Amino acid sequence: MSEYEYEPIRGLPGNLPAGEHILWQGSPDAWTFARSALGTRWIAAYFAALVVWAMVRGTLMGVVMTAGLGAVAVALALIFAVLVARTTVYTITNRRVVLRIGVALSKCINLPLGQLASADLRERGQGFGDISLGLAARSNLGYLMLWPHARPLRFSSPQPMLRALPAAAEVAGVLARATAAVQPVQQRMTKPEAQPALGSREAVA
Questions:
Q1: Which of 58, 118, 144, 196 could crosslink 62 through cysteines, CB 3.0-4.6 Å?
Q2: Is-cis flag, bond preceding 148, omega within 30?
Q3: Alpha-carbon span 162 to 99, nearest angstrom
């Protein structure tokens, strides 16, 4: 039996208080997550270059071993992406954003809408995209605590990220309307960019 079966509401650490209701719930798309968050295309390209180099400078055994290591690396990344997609639930309510994340150790990250300073949508093509959430004040959220649901390279001021969302523009609209009902929020859209890209716990930003 999974620990998630004890959730009173899927993806949430407890029952919703009076006046709060769910506006949207979803999970990352595994293949988009593997490509955008884990950089599987870059991994494959790297090992392909090593294979070519081994063909020119090395031996047949070196070519086979390099190709095998590359296949294992890509397969492990894909397996991890599938596990992330299965265990992650993003929730937007009329009061907060909740990230239930963690493959081995699960935790819930609560982000009150009143603490959001910005929401940046990065489109990934075919309707998929990422939404990074800028916080109005410093929080106790660490980059490693959030990874891989964190905006890349923002180590000093980590930003939670809803990754590899299907119909990401619609989700951004839901978030913008919910936040506007609480406070104004800056929402930006960026074009796609290639990039290499103890039980249940609850954390509040």
A1: 58
A2: yes
A3: 8
